[in-house]
Write a structure and sequence with these properties.
Distance between the termini: 27 Å
Largest sheet: 2 strands, parallel
Radius of gyration: 13 Å
Helix content: 40-55%
Strand content: 5-15%
Order of helices and strands: HEHEH
Strand order of the largest sheet: 1-2
Oligomer: single chain
Length: about 70
Amino acid sequence: VGASTAAMVAAASNAGALGSLACGAFEPERLVAEVAAIRAATARAFAVNLFVLQPAPPDAATVARALAAIV
């Protein structure tokens, strides 16, 4: 659910803009797949636009996985 697609985000980034993926309602697996598709289509910067409705303090293992995923 969102107004953007991986292809649109990559196209915007490749054109010199900051593409942004609207993914606030995505399941984690879809978010991973969409980000992978964007990374496959561009080496340029892009944004991931999401929101958290309820506080969700992560445990140490979750933080470690998140940090490993962005490196």
